[in-house]
Every structure is written in C-alpha cells, then in structure tokens.
C-alpha cells in the first residue's frame, strides 16, 4: 500500500456540469483522462495473474466525491480547530455549516453521474451527505469509464478481480472525484480489537481463585488449598484480579473529581447489536456501584438489516458492544451513550456507520474497538475513511481507535506493521497498559501490556511465548504528523498515542447474557485488550469535555502531545511484580472439566519496548487526573 496523496482542486459546479454534459453529448469528444492516484492495488504485483475479467462480468463500485474546496483545505481547517493557540482553536462547525462549506455540491453529483452514465454504467442516488454515488454495470463499461483493465487474480486464497492499472477520469470531472472503491473485490473485514481476549459466543466465566484487588490473594496453593503451586523465579506471585469495576477505575484514573460526563454524548461503533445490551448494562451497573441509567441515556441506531452474519461472527461482536458500553458508563456515569450498529464487519458498512455519526453530529467522542492490518487496507478505503474523520474533526468530534492486540503484528501477519484506522493521523490511537489497582482503588503501578504465557506442566512453569499485547509501530501509510514532532524522531506516523489498562489479566469485569450448556443467562467475566482501553479513555475524556462546557474540540492529538508531560504519566518498564497467576476453566464454564493454571508475565510485548517518553506500547503515557482539565479553554 502507498500513502494516499490525493488533492482535489477547486472547481465550480457549473463548470464541471457543463463540461460533463458536453462530453456526454458529443460522441466524438475525447477528453484527456487524468489519474485518480493510488487506485491500482499494490498487492497485484505479488498475486498470481489469472487473466482478464470477462467483459460481461458484473461490477459494483462506489465513486467517492471530493470535499468542496479540496481535501487540503479541509485538513487545514480540521487541524486549526484542534490546535491550542491557533486562532481557530475550538471554533467548530455545525453539521449544516460543514455541508455549506465543504460537502460536495449537487452540481458535482450531477456532473460525475452524467459522465458515468455516458460510459454505459448505471448510477444510483447519491449517499447521505453526497459522499459517493454507487455504480453498477459490466466490466467492459467500467474499464471504459475509468480507463483501466480489470484483471483476475489469486489473492489471499481467493479469486478476485481488481484494476490492473491506475484508474483515470476526464479532466472535466477529476476534481470532483476523491477515489473509487469496489473494483478491487478483495473482501475487507474488520475484527474486534480484543481478538485474544473477547469471550466466545458460547458461555465464558473466569475460574477461581482470583483477587478482588491487585495482590490480594497470593498464588501459593491451587484451588483445592492442598496442592502447592511452584514459585516463578523464586517469587510467589498473586492470583490475577477477578476484574476491576467502575469504582476502582474511577479512583485510579479520575482521583476525587466530581465530574460525571453530564451533558456529553459518547458514540460507540461496532458491528451488529446485542439484543440484551440494555438489560445487561442496567444489571451490571446496579451490581457494581455504577450510577443507574436514566431514561434515554443509552440508545441505539441500527441499519434496516444486518448482513454477512456468519462471515463476521455476528454473535462474537455482542461481547465487544457489552464491554464498550459498560466501560464508558463506568468512567462517565452520567454521559449519554449512543451506540451505532454497523450492518456487517465490512469496510463499506463501517464507512456508512461512521458517516452517519458525523452527519448526526450528536456525539463529541466516538470509541471504536475494531480495525485491521495496514497491509489489508486499500488506498481507496483509506481516502474514504479519512474524509469522514476530517468532517468529524471540523464538527468537534474526536475519534478514538484501539491500537490492536497483537503487538508488532509479526507473529500474526509475518510483517511488523501498524493497524488501520488506528494509524490515521486524524484519530487518536489507544494502546495498552497492565494496571495494578490496590485495595484503596489507587494505582500501585502501571507497566506495558504485553503477555508471555507459561503453562503449568509437571508442576513447573513452561513458557509458550508471546500471546498478546498492545498494538503499535510505524505506519507505512502516513508520514509523521506535526503534533508528533519532538515526541519521536521517526519520519512516519507512530502508534499508539496513549495507553490505558488493556491487559486481560488485569482487565475489567463485565456482565453479559450468554449461552451456557445450562441455558441462556447473565454472567460475568474479566476482559481486556485495547478494546477496553479505548472506551475507558472515551469515558475519561467525556469528563474533560464536561469541564469544557460540553464542547468538543475535534482531533485530540495536538492537545495530548502539548500536555504529554503533565496530563500523562510516563509508564515504566520494570514493574515490581513479574506477572500474575491466572486460573481458567478448561471447558470455559465450570470446574467439571478441570482447571488450567498459567503465569502471565507483564511487559513482554513482542519486539515493542517501553521507553522514557514516547514508545510504541503506551504512546506518551497513561492519562492522569490532570487530563480532566486539559481540554478546558480559558
């Protein structure tokens, strides 16, 4: 993949329309085609070529329209609004103001649609916000319209079609076209960030013994209290916490503040929608000391229908939604939570979901616990995502994305790389820590989340190596944004930006209705991953926005890096304890199938290491109570 570098020039709608209509009406006209950058997939160079696609083969694509005035102008505005000290800082736009200033015009829609129809393609109605028009037709017509050849390839174990060369369109409509997606038919599906720690769709419970707070119960004996456990490195470790709850996290991260998130709405996006989320969240809050939900405090927006349930493991997303909702409420008990359900885990559906978030402009924070490898992203999807992030930034909406749960991704993909969308410069990438919260709710220590697992074999601890850890690394898509100047010397965008508790061995206790062998019922389990860190930070930031009068500021990163030595605590690499002992049910439900014992070591995140200042595990560090005043404008 190449870094996208598309810049649309300013052009009047009248000029675009007139030129397109003239071209459509004169069959002899031969407008000079101009390239739409980065629309030839990079992977084709390494895939097996199977020949030309049939002329009659059906194609379906989206032609995304460029922002009015050009992408560069939109980026400048979004950055200025989010940068402390800039004259435009905090002067966010309403959704109507954004549309009047930046949204593609009706004239651009007509011009592009007219050209596409003139080439034999069927054009559907423009999407909400005029972001794109859908086109369908034959391969032959698509090749003619975009001046390319569509070839067949064997790629990632699938037979797919994709452009064999960069797409091009006439100069008369080039300025109105941002990118084209769909001609590359490789499926692009996002996964929950907590792939290593999310519960299965069948019932899951954490075994006993465990600790109510960090260090409470020493792992001297097994559950029968007769059989001794071996020490690790001549040290008796503690049993893992059963799972931290809202009161513990609030004390650890928020101190004694009286802020509650009142007047702020946090959006959450995931695929599908848990049918029991309202009842589960209500029960969990009641049982663990969180404020009761008031009428309308938790509400959902869903598509008309869900698709690809099997391919996307729809029920597996229910745990993700449960974690996100309960974590945000735990940190900001009076903030509203607006859950947006994507129709599937596919990029096109997530793009539509995020577009609705910014068009509604109902929320000032958006927590997203999903993503994919950068190598699996296409430049057209990146361009489409970034246009949404930029619109949100101008409207004062902040996007948070989990940084991933596979460390440097080498073991997972064969390449060291960052994930996307978390690597986009216009979102905040949330990495992970391992947190020790003591009996009084205060932090005993924090270190980087990266787990090495040792199983109990013949009464000895035997290492099976790295299992999971905070995602991070150097982006192959983006250069270093200005806000990272001085934090890192790399010329490329680095992830994550910050870190909060993500270790599933020091994670959060959540409550969810699941399917056990004894029937469908509510139960609780400990969970982690950067899927936890993102909603924790969203809830914490809701308090900071409350302190700012409920006003959003858009991209958080300029403020984060400007306050990196005050509002964030540098996370240390040598914790006082090497790790914890964890107990699991062999059958995931109860002790009938036996118990499994393991040591989970801290701060073993693949090749990623903690460092003084910025690092690729926790970014600039973990937020402390001073973050609650960092967004307040004087």
TrEMBL record:
Region Disordered: start-end pairs: 184-206, 477-496
Lineage: superkingdom: Bacteria
TM region(s), chain numbering: none
Known cofactor(s): Ca(2+)
Compositional bias ranges of the Polar residues kind: 192-204
SUPFAM superfamilies referenced in this protein's UniProt entry, alphabetically: Protease propeptides/inhibitors, Subtilisin-like
Any one GO molecular-function label of the UniProt entry: serine-type endopeptidase activity
GO biological processes: proteolysis
Keywords assigned by UniProt, alphabetized: Calcium, Hydrolase, Metal-binding, Protease, Serine protease, Signal, Zymogen
The Peptidase S53 domain, residue ranges: 243-634
One Pfam family it belongs to: Pro-kuma_activ
Signal peptide coordinates: 1-29
PANTHER family (UniProt xref): PROTEASE S8 TRIPEPTIDYL PEPTIDASE I CLN2, TRIPEPTIDYL-PEPTIDASE 1
The protein's name in its UniProt record: Physarolisin II. Serine peptidase. MEROPS family S53
